[in-house]
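Query form — protein tRNA-splicing ligase RtcB

QUESTION: What is the three-dimensional structure of this chain?
INPUT:
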Amino acid sequence: MALTQVANVATLPGIVRAAFAMPDVHWGYGFPIGGVAATDVDNGGVVSPGGVGFDISCGVRLLASRELHRDHLQPRLRALMDDLDREIPRGVGTKGVWQLPNRAVLQQVLTGGARFAVEQGHGVAPDLQRCEDGGVLAGADAATVSDRAIERGLGQIGSLGSGNHFLEVQAVDRIYDRAAAERMGLNEGTVCVMIHTGSRGLGHQICTDHVHQMEHAMRRFGIEVPDRQLACVPVQSTEGQAYLAAMAAAANYGRANRQLLTEATRRVFQRQASTALDVLYDVSHNLAKLEKHLIDGQLRTVCVHRKGATRSLPPHHPELPADLSEVGQPVLIPGTMGTASYVLAGVPDNPAFFSTAHGAGRVQSRHQAARHTNADMLRKGLEQAGILVRGSSRRGLAEEKPEAYKDIDAVIETSHRAGLARKVARLIPLGVVKG
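ANSWER: The structure tokens for tRNA-splicing ligase RtcB are given below.
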């Protein structure tokens, strides 16, 4: 089914080079999750909301402690996880840690992203230097966001959500590239926190709104697609520009969301472990971006759709922070509850528009995963393995059991050997907060 979707994506107007499937590919809405496709903006290239998904700018942020070693955290781990359990909002419809007073402030979030959050006291300027696009995606226009999306976004900023979203306390287990790891501030035993979440109900509503608009607009442009979920319009059309502006607004909401959760996490670590946490990197894996790439010997502007795929910039790329230029962009790829996560780095000559996998990739639906799983036994088994789980629902835990996903080590090895990114460090879970 997922490979059929890859073939369908390859029929989109203006597509260049190929439709790509990442090592974690699985079935999704229109586009497969783990799909990458670029369209030529100046030659009828289209943008498709299905190529981004409903959780716009869902992504991963990794925090690292400068001095806390896992051995020193261990005696305080249970108290720390209990504190995170209290402080991190999650679940369907949950209110976030930042209660915005009105729509005007939300509109500033939509245009200012993590930068606006920092300006309001939720973080420090160095955080932004380690964020994709400096924490704010240009081109956002709050006026393109529907009233319903605004309503859904007002109360949720600074919350994890549900499903596969999580906040995980981790420790570096293995180093593969010592020079790169040291530049990123990672050593064996370094305590880290991985935050995986996106734009919550606001992003979902924006996708819904624009899919419906494009379904009607396609006829006017003479576009036919093999799957109605691939609804699309030319990037340069009024509808295409409106979607990109609304998508950028949702991306900024997602980035501000992770910034707020960073500050909540820092407060807990300061209370329980007297330690600071630095942002190692923050990158989205559900986004469409206008980028310059060499196509048939010419530098072209293309709309790169990455749906469940992580941007992976090579060393010396101009968008990298100066202190990471020599090693390449950190690529953050989470596993599942009970399995490892990875930090990789971008490499030159990546054929998939500098993209790689974003996670382990599901092999069971949520219904299949939950059907024969006892959540209490799952939690107990993980705790016996040294992983403390703080979940908001039994059903949510069962749906996210490790067996529902591919082998993350195999996914990473494939990414490494395929020239999509190179391994830097392996991280293992100590405790996880789940929606």
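ADDITIONAL NOTE: The chain has one domain: 1-434.
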